[in-house]
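Extended Data, record Sugar kinase
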Amino acid sequence: MRTPRSTTSPATGGDVFALIRAGQATTRTEIGTLTGLSRTAVAARVTSLQASGLVVEREEGVSTGGRPPVKLSFHVQAGVVLSAAIGRSRTQLAICDLAGDVIVAEDVEQEIGTSPAELMPVIAQRLIALRESLGETAGRTVGIGISLPGTVDTERGCSLNSPMMSGWDGVPLQPFLADVTDAPVFVDNDANVMVLAERRGERRDFADMLLIKASTGLGAGLVSGGVLQRGALGAAGEIGHTKTAAAQGVVCRCGDVGCIEAVAGGWALVRNLQEQGREVTHIRDVITLALAGDAEARRMIRESGRQIGEVLSGAINLLNPEVVIVGGDMAQAYDTFVAGLRETLYGNAIAVATQQLQILPWTHGELSGVVGSATMALDHVLSVPAVDQLLAGAPRP
């Protein structure tokens, strides 16, 4: 959690809001204790936050004489954030409150290979319709969060390198959403936003976390020291195209040879079952078979976990996370997948790195992408600098 900046620089309204949003301060007295601000200064900042709609003050408990006790809280209904998790064949949309919780959601199916010029106008129309379905209760739109598979240029708001999304690289997405809202648009990698979704609630205290997204493709999201790590070019976590002996000579959909995704990704499992004459078209079909007890589907999912564990063990040695989160479509067959993952991850990683390592399923299930995209946007628009600008009446970043 963010703490006040220093004793020589008084805590701002944004600093005070950060304490209230995190639940670290619920009264004016607590704010004064944590920030060192005078009662007058605390009152001024709280009043400003109340006027912005971000903070509400409610009477709680029974008065024993004098003014009843009051509590300050983050007003999560003060607005909404729009969210879109764009995939190869399906896009998930949602309207979330300012805590990042989903209010309403829907899926949009699209043909594989659909271009941004074809899909983005549909996304814009559906987001408008979803927001309008809430009526006046929606409040103002504070931002839009979008996730994409592959490497993302977060500054330009576009795909940088995605073998899955042909025709999307280098195409900024914000212009397609100009008619939806004038609020800022933020774009990031799908696994990155999913790991942000996990850093909420009871998992907030995990400062070193690695999320593996095992779906049609493979990716990872990494939080180290409490900070999301994107890498120099945004390519941190692109484990799907790590070379492995198990894929020697096997052509990957990226055009290279020997990638782990070519033998352990969802699309590879679909390919293998199709070669056996099975009628499957997506990894979700394989999961359905496995959950129904199909021995071959279960074997393939466990083997996928085993092969991914071999690659992941090196990351465990390098990064020493507290927890590995398993997400993506294969998380629906969690027990089967993790049985294979544990076998090689614990077998290949050094003992000290796995001594206290936890492996857990994703918290938000299939909503992880939209919850994470909303969380990513909210981390920007509700940051200390952004709130300070809002309170000062300055343009939003």
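Summary. The chain is about 35% helix and 20% strand.
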